[in-house]
Design goal:
The structure holds 2 protein chains of 2 kinds.
Chain A lengths: L8 E2 L2 E2 H23 L9
Antiparallel strand pairs in A: 1-2
Chain B lengths: L1 H26 L5 H6 L6 H9 L5 H14 L3 H31 L4 H9 L2 H33 L6 H18 L2 H30 L2 H11 L13 H17 L1 H6 L6 H31 L10 H9 L2 H39 L8 H28 L4 H24 L5 H19 L2 H10 L15 H19 L20
Helix pairs in contact in B: 1-8, 1-9, 1-15, 3-9, 3-13, 4-7, 4-13, 5-11, 5-13, 6-7, 7-8, 7-15, 7-16, 7-17, 8-15, 8-16, 9-13, 9-15, 10-13, 11-17, 15-16, 17-18, 17-20, 18-20
Classes of the chains: A mainly alpha, B mainly alpha.
Amino acid sequence: EVLWFDGTVIAGLPLWLWWHIGWMGLAAVVFRIFANRAWGVGVEEV
Amino acid sequence: MADTTLQLAIIAVYLVVALGIGVVAYRLTERTAEDYYLASRTFGTVVLLFTTFATLLSAFTFFGGPNLAYSAGPEWILVMGLMDGIIFAVLWYVLGYKQWLVGQKHGYVTLGEMLGDRFGSTWLRGGVAVVSIFWLFPYVMLQQKGAGQAIVGLTDGAVPFWVGAGGITLFMVLYVVLSGMRGVAWTDTLQGLFMLGIVWVAVAWVLAAVGGPRAATSELATSNPEFLRLGGGLYSPQYMLSTAISIAFGVTMFPQINQRFFVARSKRVLKRTLSLWPVLVVLLFVPTFLLGTWAAGLGVDVPANSNVIPVVLGEYTAPWFTAVVIAGAMAAMMSSSDSMLLSGASYLTRDLYRPVTGRSDAQADAEAESHEAVVARIGVVVFASASFVASLYAPGTLVQIGNTAFSGFAQLALPVIVALYWDRTTKWGITAGIAGSQLFYAISAFDVLRWLSQFVIGRPAIGLPQDYLGWSPAIAGMLLGFVLTVGVSAATETAASENTLAYSVTGSEAE
């Protein structure tokens, strides 16, 4: 017991900025899952 | 003229109200040192989140970031998003949770205390405090410089720089003298929520005035088409990664942030906060830096030694609204500075004054505590006054000054992480790691060798490189610190005075 690939503009903002905003949303979900299911991994010792 | 008077009145009233909130919060607290510095370790999720975030709710974000986006493009959003939303969030767990458990076990208040106890070294404890206070100086100065520039920009130069910088210094000192960590935490939270809201209102107002985001971006595509293409110019991959990594690691070692690792009320608070970091950075950085970027497309002319945000708001919104935003930013900067000064003061009294006067941490009687409180307040006044004077003469942009401070703190991070996770770390290892990386970075940042050679032989003969294959000296220094900590630890024996089990935690400390 977890993102380089342009000037395309969509709805007034660069595509790369939309990617970043979406990626931050994904990160928030992943951090939430980690906090609920795996908190303590690697920090607490057995 | 009437507009300027109204704007200055709004700023003054706003700062006085912010001061009042701190005083009220202080009246509600106990009078012990632990409450003054750590609010008795009782921060809930929202307060912990915002009082930590407050370091970035500063001139670095409100003025420095938009200035950079205005001059070099909006990729600064990605740098700060990666830095705070991902890397700092991961460190919040790896470093923050570990420190919180260790703090619960031993009752530490400062980073120096935590290291000094583990390695049985008063010198290490004092050394970490000196290094931290040293790098705090440019970051506090940055707030004063930002405030001075904001007032100059707002009043079109009618009010001189020193009035803005001096005004915020006066409020900073008053606040620390009248309030403690709980007072600062509450104003951090209220200022943070207010600024998050007001920044979005500002963006909506400007966009409504220019015809929406598509219109603003199409102006940008005409005037600065390269701003819409990812990377290029200042933004090389090495620059973006160097900056994001050094700021994220640096933030964890700022005294006011590092002390926050000791103050969470429970494990649940730390868990909740983790997933909120990426959300918060999008809510703050995207609108603030886009405003600076769009200003470039709108042809907003920013005078030298001024900031883009007051100018663009002055052009497209009402004078009273511009004043409210600047007042909010200045109050947030004041609150952030107070967090720093308060934590710096606890480093001064606990890690320097206490060992020098021969008092142990266990001897906490009321008389000694009140004596330390006086020392802390004198320290704050001297420190803030000195940084104010420096702000009048300091060269460099707000982002450059901020990066220097963040990078100096970043040199502490890897030796501390190694010590927290590797019980073979020795006193000599961590001392070599911290001293070696600090020396390397300070010589690089201040160009000491060039200056020395100029002084000795009359010409600037030698100097360390300003980059390493595009990577910053901060990253090179961090790697040097890591190698020295591990290498010297492997080559030396654990001293009898060291407590190698001090950082061994199982999670039961949290129960």
